[in-house]
């Protein structure tokens, strides 16, 4: 299963150093999502992350930086939904229904489906799909290796995401609230083992 982390919407002290630690712990992809950030702020964060990880970074805004910094790709959402005319890289997008997945999967490298579980970072943002519906979607190959589970992902529910045939998980709230936790190294090892069957 693919292990993806989405950044906190706000810039955090020590964020680039922590991102380096995430990649060293086996992280597959980092999605930088800072909805209100300027291009200068994006450049500053990307420049602080060791360049060896740049090819594992996806950006949600300021798509022109993808080629400039040799990033993994761009992520389309409601705010930034246009693919740059000459963009040659990988493209992902956000989906909030099974119908959207069917439509978008054909032309995207992978897609997010959310919310799968009750959100940790967004209060009142509850799971939108029943376990029965997700099982059926897996049986019909709607959910497959190109579909990433997002929303309320924790170490405890990763096995369920695997059972529903998701190709990976995107973690946000559960990770960033642990950034200063002395036990964070153990948590990262646990995630790596769960996702990569080590």
From TrEMBL:
Top-rank taxon, per record: Bacteria
UniProt GO molecular function: thiamine-phosphate diphosphorylase activity
Coiled coil: none
Signal peptide: none
Domain Thiamine phosphate synthase/TenI: 15-172
GO CC entries: cytoplasm
Keywords: Thiamine biosynthesis
Pathway stated in the Swiss-Prot or TrEMBL entry: Cofactor biosynthesis; thiamine diphosphate biosynthesis
InterPro entries membership: Aldolase_TIM (IPR013785), ThiamineP_synth_sf (IPR036206), ThiamineP_synth_TenI (IPR022998)
Keyword Transcription regulation: no
Protein name per its UniProtKB record: Thiamine-phosphate pyrophosphorylase
Species name: Prevotella scopos JCM 17725
